[in-house]
Every structure is written in C-alpha cells, then in structure tokens.
Design a protein that fits this description.
46% of the residues lie in helices and 20% in strands. The chain has helices at 18-28, 37-46, 56-77, 96-100, 103-121, 175-194, 199-203, 207-226, 253-256, 268-276, 328-352, 359-387, 392-416, 448-459, 471-480, 497-504, 526-532, 545-566; strands at residues 7-11, 30-34, 51-54, 81-86, 91-94, 138-145, 148-158, 164-173, 231-237, 242-249, 260-261, 280-282, 300-308, 311-320, 440-444, 464-468, 485-489, 513-517, 537-540. It is elongated, with a radius of gyration of 37 Å. A 6-stranded antiparallel sheet has the order 11-10-9-14-13-12, with helices on both faces. Strand 7 (148-158) and strand 8 (164-173) form a beta hairpin. By secondary structure, the protein is of the alpha/beta class. It has 4 domains: 7-77; 81-124 and 134-173, Beta-Lactamase (2-Layer Sandwich); 182-416, GAF domain (Beta-Lactamase), CATH 3.30.450; 425-566, 3-Layer(aba) Sandwich (Rossmann fold), CATH 3.40.50. The chain contains 18 helices and 19 strands.
Amino acid sequence: MAETRNKVLVLAGQSTTNASIIDTLRGVCDLAITDSIDQAIELLRHDHYDAIFSDSADFLPLERALVSQQANLVLNTIGEGVCIVDGEARCNWMNKKMQAWPARVHEKIRRTCQEAFELFSKQTSPHPNETPTFNRSKRYSLNIEEQQFMEMIASPVISPAGQVVQVVAVVWDATGTRRLQQKIDAIDKAGRELVRLEADSLSKMNVGQRLHLLEEKIISYTRDLMHFDHFAIRLLDRKTNKLEVVIAHGLPNDSLNIEMFSEAEGHGISGYVAATGRSYICPDIERDPRYVIGLDQAKSSLTVPLRLHDKIIGILNIESRQRAAFNEDDRQFAEIFGRYVAIALNILDLMVVERVSTSHKVTDDVCSLLAGPLNDIHIDAGALMEEFIGHDELRAKLQQILDNVGVMRKTMRQAADGPNSILGARDVEGGTDPLLAGTQVLVADDEQNIRLTIGEILRKYGVTATLAANGTEAIELLERQDFDLVISDIKMPDKSGSEIFAATRCKKPMPPVILMTGFGYDPNHSIMRASQEGLHAVMFKPFKVELLLGEVRKAIQSRQASASAKG
C-alpha cells in the first residue's frame, strides 16, 4: 500500500536558510512552493494543505491576508447584500449578493447610503473636548419599484479622528415580508367587516337580504384576500353529520349536488377535513384518491376547517385550474380567514334567532361561545409578532388585529342583546282577525315544538291549521285538499320543503308558500331559485311571532288579491 504524503505550502521568501529546509521537506512531503503572498493565497483558495511553511517575517502579512480572505468568503456567502459607500455615493466594495442585483437597485442603495452618510456626519458631541457619539445604525425601507421592496441597515465607518469616512450597508429583499404584511392587512379588514353585523341594520332586512349581504362580503373578501374565484362553504349539520352547501362561487351545480358527510373516508377531501379538523392541500387532484368532482378542469385544491373554538362547524374548499396552486402560506391565511367566516356565520345566526333564556343568559352564552375563536385569532397574531421581531410595520398591523379582537368581544355582547323568548308565543293573546279567520293553513315541520307552536298561534286568530310531521305527509295532504297557505320547513328527513313547494305548484290556484329554515341551510341556493318561481317568504327559526303573523297576513292578502283579479 502506497504511503500517503502530506501536502505542504511553502512561502519561500528571501531567506537563504529556507533552501536546505525545503530540500529536507521535499523528501518527505509533497510541496507547493511560491514566492509571493498573493500566489500563496490563490493556492490556498483552490486546494487543501496540511501545513504552511514560511519565514517569520512573512507569516504576519500572510495571516492577515488569510483573515481578509475568510471575511470575504463569509460576506459572499451570507444571504444579504453588503456594500461600502463613501460620501460621494461611490461604492468602494460590494459582495456577490449585492453584485447580482440590477443597476436600479444599486443606484437606490448608493443614494440612500449617501443620505445616511450626511446624517451621521451631522452628529456632533455637545462639548468640543468630547469624542463624537454616533448612532450605530439606521434602518431604511426602500421601494425599488411596484411590488418590490427592500430593507437596509446603514452603519457609519469612523476614522481614528472621529470622522465618518464611509457607510456600510446591509440590504435584504423584503418583498415577501411586505406581501405578508399586505395579506395580514387584508385579513384584518375582511375579518372586521365580516363581524360588523349591526342588529339595527339587519333587522330591516329579510332573510334573503341578510344571506345575500353575507354572501357578497365573503365572496368579495375571499377574492381580494387570496385571489381565489372558485370556492364553496359547507356547514356541518350536527343531527345528520351532513355537510350542507351554504355559499358557493364559481363551482358547477354537479359538484354542489354531491352529498358529503363528515367522515374521514369515503366522502372526499371535505369530509376528511370536517372529520379530522386538519387542513388539506391537494397539489394534483389526478393523483389524490380522496378528491371528488368539483371545478371543471380543476388541477389542485385547498380545504380548511371552519372552527368555532374547539368545534368544527364546516369547511371552506377552494379549487384552482393550476397544479400545485396552493402552499403553506395559503393554508395558514385560509385558516385564519376561516375563523372569521365561522364567527360571522355564527353571529348572524345568533342575531336572527330568539332565545328562550333572559338577555343576560344570551349574552353569557354568546361570549362563552365566541371566546375560544377570538382567543385563537389572538394567539395566531401574537405568534406572528414573535416570528417577525424587528419588522415594526408588520408588528403594528398585527397589534391592530389584537386590538380589534377586544372590539369584537364588546360587539358580541351588543349583538346578543334582543328579545328573549322563542317566537314570543307566551305573549300571544289572539283575537278576531277577519283576514285570517276561516283560512286553511298547512304547517309542515318535523320539529314538534315548532310545528305545535305555530299551529297554536294561528288557531288563536281563527285559522284552521293542519299539521304535518314530515314532508311525505304534507304532500299527501296537498294532494287530498286545498289550502290557502302552506308553511313548511325546508329541511326534513324525507321530503324537503323544496319538494313541498314543487308540489304546491301543481295546485290550481297555487297557494302561497312560506319556507322555514335553520340558519345556514340552503342547499344549492334553493331559496333563491324558489323565490324566482313564486316563493312568498323565508323565515329563519326561531323567529318572532310578529314576523310570522306579518308574513301570514301578507300571503293571505296576496292570495285574495290574485283571486279578485282573476274573478
């Protein structure tokens, strides 16, 4: 086996004693001999040596040169641009990162360094005999061009005489951070707008208008915030475990008609997310067996849960015609935005329904329910603040989110105030009402309490109320007799309110129909379509007695006016 010989670099210099030593070393080592420090550094740059032999007079300059070489290596390796600029805005040195940037960036940096040079030069000590004190650095934000931003820290180079002679600048691309800040701004704005649902303004809107307002806001903010045009929101029905479509935009009806349940397997990505509470990025739908038909020519999707504290109330599914269109940033922002959406949906629900308990209990229930998700937003924003220490503008925006959480908590209490009885049934005295007396009304609802309560109220005003416990029974009653009005729940286990509405259209003359629904249930926008086909009204339950009686009277009046016009 051949003996391994050490490699030695010899800086020969001018010493005559070196010759004999070099001859000795040549017998036991592989030598690389050079006469100059520059050549020695060049050899060290491209090769490894086990030892360096030099005259003592040459060692100190060589050591300094090697230190300088290492400094250059470090400065050329780091991810930031570094440069040295004098008072005339001349760049005396720059590392490789800085050299790679275009001339317009160099120009902006040099001019900013000149500004910093003048600022540092103006700093003087308060007493002539004292050494000047300088700010050790100053931070600048550079707007290079639209959508490109850089951050720079400038520090003075001070001579022994106490004069500023140069400025050292460390520069990095902050475009990603600035875009992050812009997204946080958008999240904050969207979240505040979504939860700004004033009870007074909503009380002047009917159910369709309320849903339309919320739908418009969610669609607008989803597009502006994340630039997504194809998405659907499904809410979880706790009784059936089904994910019902509430709001959809840019997706075909075929995909919205697919029944999905909160199950980890067998019900698509949406079912998996609702069951597990885990967000899901699908980079390529063709390779993912969980994906179920959605957007035409879809290539990828992002699905996040809608969380209300520790409960999953639904999912937000976003689709794209590009492969791998979503990344971890998209997931994080969609999750934060999804929490705002969940709060907005729940606030609207709480505001349009009436509660059995006193207003104090309502307030306590609302605050208890929303404390968790607001705390989640608070924690998310706080964590981002810790992550981006030093980014003052970004941290200021995050602080605004934290402040807004406090405002939201106060708004929640105000929004929860309102009437404190279901339907106000206990206060109904009834009496003679010529418009309603003798009318035939069919009431269909699988919820016994609602069905019996509506029947009791109507009978107090002389209405003949026929009650049906399910959709099948209601349709059978419609086939056997005529009614002046039909009041039906939309969601029942067998036949839906939409099917009952379709059955009334076969009647001549067609009786007016009022549909009832729990908040959030409107599969495939059936309410909107039914309204276009002659639906009289929609009521969210529980609702006020005044609303019920008002809609019943308007429906009967409409029927009588129609009959008079035909007669």
